[in-house]
């Protein structure tokens, strides 16, 4: 009775025989997957709390006669500290788990925002009215949690040391070069239609963000992995590829923030969060699969269950954000952690710094 499971476990842990992943360079550790997933979930939860704390600070100042600026309040600084702590957790998670696992876990931030939003609403509801108003949010949270469980359970389990040699090898591999060619052509076409033809459709703008973001997550994992190896004593900072990746990470994040700012001026933040999460997650997972070969050696069942987890999480996020209303006293941040391909870049749009009408789009925290 015990031989079959042990044999299956041994087969599951056999390294793939691939020229891209020679035996000895790739390890298989569910422990590392778990550490990365827990760091990502913790980071997204803390960032959601931080963003809502900061928004609560803005709204409280807007509704009072307090002349202080928001950055002079303890609440705002507490939010900033928690945000940095959460972002550090998400950043570190890329060094432990495959990119394809970490990216879709940003759905946790949407779940947290939905729950925090309900808690902060001060209106009194009858149970029947409350359920009717928030039934989509509850269903969406349930689906997102189920999707997250499937993602963690059936995620790719290959772990390659992020050394300068390995990253350089992946960078010049023909699958990634072909992927980059397709992405550059698509990006240029979308940019042409957006700038020259005034194609302001949200899909066009968020596809630009997602394409840039796919490069951001690839570089974030490389930078995080090389930093962790350096801290462990295997110095990687003397490799030029580290600085190439770092510059690409910052540059793509800045341009994503610019496009995202333009999108936020034309579309509702809830729509941006749901559409952006779906597009960004899909393209980022594709980039990780091509660059880091995340799914090499995975059996068809695990890949199908992982894809099912993504689809369920997509549906959950869509239902949560679809239920978002503007005309409520406290509309929680829909953190752009829901768009998993953006670097830490908290920029305040200052549309209504001390006015009554808050739309939930004054500030975004953007992470990859």
Q: Describe the main β-sheet briefly.
A: 2 strands, antiparallel
Query: What Rg do the Cα atoms give?
Result: 21 Å
Give the number of helices.
12
Overall pLDDT level: 79
Strand content: under 5%
With strands numbered from the N-terminus, the spatial order across the biggest sheet is: 1-2
Order of helices and strands: HEHHHHHEHHHHHHEE
How many beta-strand elements?
4
Share of residues in helices: 55-70%
Q: How many separate domains make up the residues?
A: 1
Quick recap:
This protein has 368 residues and is mainly alpha-helical.
Describe the overall structure.
There is one protein chain. The chain has one domain. Helix content is 65%, strand content 3%. It has 12 helices and 4 strands. The chain has helices spanning 3-12, 30-62, 74-93, 99-102, 107-120, 127-153, 164-171, 174-196, 202-231, 240-264, 269-291, 300-322; strands spanning 26-27, 159-160, 345-348, 363-366. The strands form 2 sheets. It has a two-stranded antiparallel sheet with strand order 1-2. A two-stranded antiparallel ribbon has the order 3-4. The chain crosses the membrane at residues 34-54, 75-96, 102-121, 133-152, 172-194, 201-229, 241-259, 271-293, 299-320. GO terms for molecular function: magnesium ion transmembrane transporter activity. Belongs to the NIPA family.
């Amino acid at each position: 009775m015990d031989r079959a499971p042990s044999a299956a476990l041994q087969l599951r842990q056999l390294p793939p025989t691939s020229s891209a992943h020679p035996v000895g360079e790739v390890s298989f550790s569910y422990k590392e997957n778990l550490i990365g997933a827990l760091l990502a979930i913790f980071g997204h939860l803390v960032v959601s709390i931080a963003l809502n704390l900061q928004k609560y600070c803005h709204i409280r100042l807007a509704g009072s006669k307090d002349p202080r600026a928001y950055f002079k309040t303890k609440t705002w600084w507490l939010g900033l500290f928690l945000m940095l702590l959460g972002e550090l957790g998400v950043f570190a998670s890329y060094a432990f788990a495959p990119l394809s696992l970490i990216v879709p876990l940003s759905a946790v931030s949407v779940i947290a925002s939905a729950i925090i939003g309900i808690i902060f609403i001060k209106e009194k509801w009858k149970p029947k009215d409350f359920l009717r108003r928030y039934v989509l949010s509850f269903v969406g949270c349930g689906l997102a949690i189920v999707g997250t469980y499937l993602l963690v359970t059936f995620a790719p389990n290959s772990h390659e040391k992020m050394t300068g040699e390995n990253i350089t090898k992946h960078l010049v591999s023909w699958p990634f070069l072909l992927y980059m060619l397709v992405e550059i052509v698509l990006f240029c076409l979308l940019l042409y239609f957006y700038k020259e033809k005034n194609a302001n459709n949200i899909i066009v703008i968020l596809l630009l963000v997602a394409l840039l973001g796919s490069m951001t997550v690839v570089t974030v994992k490389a930078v995080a992995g090389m930093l962790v190896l350096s801290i462990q004593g295997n110095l990687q900072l003397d490799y030029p590829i580290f600085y190439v990746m770092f510059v690409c990470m910052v540059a793509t994040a800045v341009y994503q923030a610019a496009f995202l700012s333009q999108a936020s001026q034309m579309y509702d933040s809830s729509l941006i969060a749901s559409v952006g999460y779906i597009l960004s997650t899909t393209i980022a997972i594709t980039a990780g699969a091509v660059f880091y070969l995340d799914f090499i050696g995975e059996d068809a069942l695990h890949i199908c269950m992982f894809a099912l987890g993504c689809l369920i999480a997509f549906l959950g996020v869509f239902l949560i954000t679809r239920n978002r209303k503007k005309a409520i006293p406290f509309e929680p941040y829909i953190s752009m952690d829901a768009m998993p391909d953006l670097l830490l870049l908290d920029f305040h749009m200052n549309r209504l710094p001390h006015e009554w009408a808050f739309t939930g789009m004054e500030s975004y925290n953007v992470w990859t």
